[in-house]
Design goal:
alpha+beta, 3-stranded antiparallel β-sheet, globular, about 10% strand
Amino acid sequence: MDYQAVIDEVAAHARPYVGRGQVADYIPALERVRADRFGIAVADIHGEVYGAGDWEVPFSVQSISKTFSLALVMSQGHGSPGGPGGSAGYHEDEIWRRVGREPSGTPFNSLVQLEAENGIPRNPFINAGALVVTDRLLTLTGDASTALLHFLREESGNPDLAFDQAVADSEAEHGDRNAALAHFMASFGNLENPVPSVIEHYFWQCSVEMSCRDLAVAGGFLARHGLRADGSRLLEAREAKRINAVMLTCGTYDAAGEFAYRVGLPAKSGVGGGIVAVVPGRCTLCVWSPGLDARGNSVAGAAALDHFTTLTGWSVF
């Protein structure tokens, strides 16, 4: 496979879609990003990276961070003390008692289902579910956002990765909906830590800045069936499979069915315009273009990934 030739063709195909859609405007720091940016990178399972366009320009990862937080919880939960009620022997499956694995069918920041479902979010990739995962990571590590940042630095090989203070502040200033989700779940006993702490760590996680290159490399453990960049095991193969499965069914908000139909790969998007996609056993991709469709997914990014799977014939179907 000549990855560079494929990536160049995909970038050319996606160019007419760049600038379409709407840059996220409910977070003022994101609204200032130019809509005409586009980057794409692919990292094979051996760590070789290829890219085109603005593939080395950092951007706000936003909800893409939810995939990595979930992986850390699943990896660190085995045998760790302090499940609900302080019981020892916490197991990875415990997180799935607190958050589901089903598509929501509602916007990513919706409160609608929580009351009917007793404070249990539908999946870990909507905001309510990600808050539960952040809460668990905070219990396990004592510092959820720093744990995530260190992990991303190690896996990407980029020690300069950092939080974006302006984005974190902007999210905090406009975070009433997320606070409402957290307080509502706390009322059902589905948070272990104080709501302000959970919210703060969640906003910091979403504010991490990474490039397409960084994200493609950092997500490589999902293509390597749970193996980290240094060859050590982060997740069991069955756990990596499960994360990929939830990415496929829930990773692109309430457009996951359409995305699976078009692209056919596990993926996680963010309102910063990025999408990370996984070809198990082969490679990980990241595309970035800030123009979003009505459901919060990058217009040009989805078109690029659609063309990539068409060219290569690689999908999970």
